[in-house]
Amino acid sequence: MKVTDIIFALIFGRMLGFLIEDFLREGGIKIGFYYILIFWIALPFFSLFCLWLAYLIGKKWLFIFQAAKFLLVGAFATIIDLKIFELLTLLLIPIPLISKSISFLVATFLKYWGNKYWTFGKYEGEDINKEIIQFFIITSVGLIVDVASFYYFTKIMGPQFAISSAIWIKLSVIFAAITAALWNFLGYKFLVFKK
To answer: What is the reported pLDDT for 116?
Structure first.
């Protein structure tokens, strides 16, 4: 594993801890000192451990290591997506579908950079314009999948299991990102960043 792999895994683990803390506070659950230690220390090292396992397995099947990196990039971008969505909805744009579209596009920029250079290690391309057009097409379809999934989870399905509406909206952002992630991974791996 490279140093960048280690650093990114640790950062992601910390970001995941931040997200879990946010959900717990939103749900009215008090967080004690030991839980904060878990969020600040254990989750980053757990993330690193999982990436290390994927690295070992990836020596035989490269796809596994790439998928693990893709998940880390996607999860990191999803957290950014969620926070930008909340900020836009709170401060600037009170229409959730517009806020979600903007937050998705910002997160997609992060995904492009992370997947191109870190996940798939493609530093030069034969035709950068073709790559950008392909990325834009895959991402545009991903945007439709993401926003449609968000709409489904929030408007059609609605809150489940006695979960508050505020937490359900956050979960819907995550569910929508996961749904679009499958499409994006296949498109990026086999079309945009293929070697």
So the answer is: 85
